């Protein structure tokens, strides 16, 4: 089963979350393009959860050096980008379907 999990050193719920990102990340990107207000909410929720979970596991596992040392700061930076853009996307007029 280890070959099917993102990491065997973390609980199943973390692996399920990381696997769900395969679907949630592209969905958020599409929604930001098609329904910006809804996409902004999903993107913000995904990024906050992702940075929180990855930060927790980086602290628990002592991730330092290598690729891990670059990934978390990059995710935190992108969270800042999402936070900065959130008010602008939420201020857009809803589309015809009432996003």
UniProtKB/TrEMBL annotation:
Highest taxon of the lineage: Bacteria
Transmembrane segment boundaries: 12-34, 41-58, 70-89
Keywords in alphabetical order: Membrane, Transmembrane, Transmembrane helix
Name of the protein this chain belongs to: Uncharacterized protein
Species assigned in the record: Deinococcus aquiradiocola
